Each structure stands twice: as C-alpha cells, then as structure tokens.
Amino acid sequence: MSDATLLRGGHVLTLDDEFGEMPDSDVLVIDGRIADVGVGLPVPDGADDVDCRGMIVLPGFIDTHQHLWNSFFRGLITGIGERAYFPVKRRLSALVTANDSAAATLAALWESAASGVTSVVDWHHNLRSPDFAEAAVTAHRVSGLRTRLAYGNPDAWDATRTADLDDIERWANAGVGPLSDLGLAVRGPTRSQPAVLAAEWQAAARLGLPMTMHLGGRRTDTDRYADLRAMEAAGLLVPALQVVHAVDADVEELTLLADRGVSISLSPATELGSMGPPPIAQALDAGVQLSLSTDSLALPARADMFEQMRTVVRLGNARGGAPVTPRTALALATREGARDLGWDHQVGRVRPGLRADIVVVDARRLGFAVALDPVLSLVMACGVEDVHHVLVDGRWLRRGGADLTGLDAARATAHEALLGVLDRAGWAVASRGGESSASAGQTTE
Fold it and tell me: Which residues does 118 contact at the CB level (< 8 Å), separation at least 6?
C-alpha cells in the first residue's frame, strides 16, 4: 500500500513559475513524492488527511552553508578578545573528538529541522581524520534531513597539505546516503599553496564534486579575502565553485562571478554583525546565483531562515539598487538554494514530481494579514515558533508544532560532549542560577 498524505486547504506558495501561489489548495504526497497540487483533491483511501486551513504551505528552507560541528560552542563566544569566534575555534578544535563532532552535528540538524530547514550543507572545516567523516555521515543519515557533506580539512591546516583526497574519493565512490551527497570545502588561495589548489581543484573536477570556499570578511582582511581577479587569471573560477560571504565584491567582480557561473552563499545576519553588509541587490543585478545560509550556531545564533530572509530584505534595500522584495528573499531561501546546490530537479518547489520537502507555517495568529499578502506576512512577521509541520522526503520531522526527532536528547548529548571538550581545554565551568558560563583563562595561539 502506498504511503499517502494530503495537506488540505492551505495557502500554497509553490515557488514554481507554472503553479505560482494557490489559495485554499491541497498538496498530495505519495511515497515521499509530490503527486498533485490543486483545489479540492480527493483523499485517497487510507491517506493521512491533514487540515492546513489558515496555514502557509511552502518548500522547505535550504541552508547552503552551516558549520555543524562547532554548533555546541554556542554560549562560549562573546565576539570580544579571546572569546571571539576564531580564538575559541582555534583553541578547542583539536580537542573535539569525532563523537563530539557528531553530537553537535545531529543537534544542529534537528534544530534546523524544527525551524523549517529541510536541507543543510555541512560545511565541515574540522575533519581531523576519516573517523570524523564517518561520524558526520552517520549523523546526517540519522537526522532524516537532506544534506551535503562539504568535506574540508582540520582547523588551521598546513597550507602545504591538501584535504584528505583519498578519503574524499572513497566517499565519492561509496556515496554519502540516500538523502545526502558530497562536496569539497576548499580553503582557497589565501590559505593554500598553489600546488594544493591545483590538486584540490583537479580532484573536484575528476570526481564531479561541487566546491565551496570562504571569501572574507572584508577586503582588508588579507589573510582571508581572496582576490577574485587573481583567481580568474589562475583559472580557479569555475561553475563548480560557490563562494561564501563575498561582502566586499565590487560590481566588476560580481559580473565576473556571474559570467563564470560561480555562486554566492550569503549569511546576512553574520555578515551584518561582523563583516559588513553584503551587496545583495548588486549581485542580483549582475545575475549571480545567490542562496542563504546560517553560518554557525556558535556565533551565537539559532537556525532561523526567517531572520536571514528579513535581513536580506532590509540590507538589500539599505545598500541601494533595485528593491529586494520579500518574494525575492523567499526564493533565495528555497528555490534558489536548490539551484545553487544542483538539487532543483528534486526540491525547492512544491510541484508534482519533486520530492516532498515541505514546511507548513501556522500564520493564524497574524489574522487577515495573511489574506492580504501571505509572502509579506511569512517573511517579515512569521518566525520559527510558527513552524507547524515539517516533512523531508515525505517523512514527518515535525507535526502540529511538536518535534518528532529527539531534539531535546540530542541537545543534552551535545552539551555533555561540550563539557568534555572544555574539561580537556582547562576551561572552568561554573553554574550560577541555572546557567553555565565558561572561563577561558589564557589562550594559546
């Protein structure tokens, strides 16, 4: 017997050019696939009939860049001195075990799911051994989310050494999982010698893997900000490459990225807080493929694509250029994320034939605002607390506002893992009034 679910009577934002917005409509899911979208669809025998009246039905959010392994550092990082992100990461990264990393990864994935995120790129820049990759892949499979393991290197890795290309090839040949694939997280010209760059770019091309690379910070941060014109001269700007942040890219560079098919993953809340406003409208005008991401829960932050979308709208309009509308922001968080990852043949829209990665947001508390403009209400007034149902590949991860994943237990396990890391680091943890705080003492660079 087929596994069928009918999401009935919602305002469906398909993000599909043919189907558009469909008020009071139904979505039929059979065996993990969207079978039909329309008004008054019949309920198949034995189907799970789910009332979505007064709710907004849309594709799941797609987070194209999140450092899952260090999510359990959240609360340690203040942004100041030795408690800024990079000093904390440098001190603790070598003390994190594969099991610690997996615990943090699973907790972050399930927090993402509870927030309406159905796809996550695990931008793993602390893969210290093949055991770490095994642990990450296990967490991905357990999570039930659609994922990509962007396979990187250990933190602060020697610029003369490549990532573990043998292990990357092993995963490329074996496959990561039924809902997962593999990419290569590269350091780029500022942190890799030319021979390393050549080897990693060649490996990605030979194995058919997408690449993702951080680009700044600010242009003045010369040990992090790669020169895009120099990368073009070296033949490094290829369609398989995604760059992250790129807040200081000028119009000429944005045009170059668009011409070469290089995409940008924006983490607008992070960028606003520590790097500067990204050139959102200018990148869109230049035709660059954009997508949205959380960056890291360690910052501290929460998995919240509503915040990212609102920040896109506000920052995009603040920098001038063509207006960045809520509809544009929603597309970046869903359909365009799928296009950036090469997954648009599977997800990113609510359309018959695609896989059923679907989020239902309960907008009833907003009243008639939804009827006036559901997209405006969703992007600018809803939040993670309004995420009512979440399905990934037709499987329920959240229903009726209740988590079905084991998030609380995963958070507890991740917290215990963090305490072990802090103990090995010699950080004193004091509990006062039910809250924990860590005292870092002296850092060692």
Answer: 59, 60, 61, 62, 145, 146, 347, 357, 358, 359, 390, 391, 392, 397
Q: Determine the Cα–Cα distance for residues 165 and 143; give it in Å rounded to an integer.
A: 26
* Cβ-count burial 124-136 (b if 16+ within 10 Å, e if not): bbbbbeeebbebb
The whole-number pLDDT of residue 286 equals 96
Provide CATH code, domain 61-341.
3.20.20.140
**3-state SS assignment for residue 64:** strand
Q: Which of 49-53, 144-148, 429-433 has the lowest mean pLDDT?
A: 429-433
Domains 4-59+348-403 and 61-341 belong to one CATH topology: no
pLDDT exceeds cutoff 50 at 440: no
Q: Check if the beta carbon of residue 164 is closer than 8 Å to that of residue 157.
A: no
Average pLDDT over residues 73-85: 92
- Kindly report, residue by residue over 137-175, the tens digit of the pLDDT: 999 999 999 999 999 999 999 999 999 999 999 999 999
Tokens of 137: 């892949």
Q: Strand, coil or helix: what is 439?
A: strand
Alpha-carbon separation of residue 114 from 267, 338, 386, 435 (angstroms): 19, 19, 10, 23
DSSP bridge pairs for 123: 150
Instruction: Provide the CB-side half-sphere exposure for 124 (13 A, CA).
Output: 36
How confident is residue 438, by pLDDT bands cut at 50, 70 and 90?
A: low
CA-to-CA distance for 301 and 181, rounded, in angstroms? 26
- Answer for the pair 63, 416: CB distance below 8 angstroms, yes or no: no
Q: How many CB atoms lie within 10 A of CB 160?
A: 9
- Answer yes or no: are the C-beta atoms of 70 and 94 closer than 8 Å: no
Of the CATH numbers 2.30.40.10, 2.60.40.10, 3.40.190.10, 3.40.50.300, which one belongs to the domain with range 4-59+348-403?
Answer: 2.30.40.10
Cα(407)–Cα(390) distance, integer angstroms = 14
**Number of alpha helices (DSSP H) and beta strands (DSSP E) in the chain:** 15, 19
Residue 117 to residue 333: CA distance in whole angstroms:
9
Query: Cβ distance 101 to 69 under 8 Å?
Result: yes
User: Among 62, 53, 46, 45, which residue's Cα sits nearest to residue 7?
Assistant: 53
Token pair 């600018």 is at which residue? 380
**Residue boundaries of the structural domains of the chain:** 4-59+348-403, 61-341
Residue 222 — very low, low, confident or very high, per pLDDT cuts 50/70/90? confident
> Residue 170 is which amino acid?
R
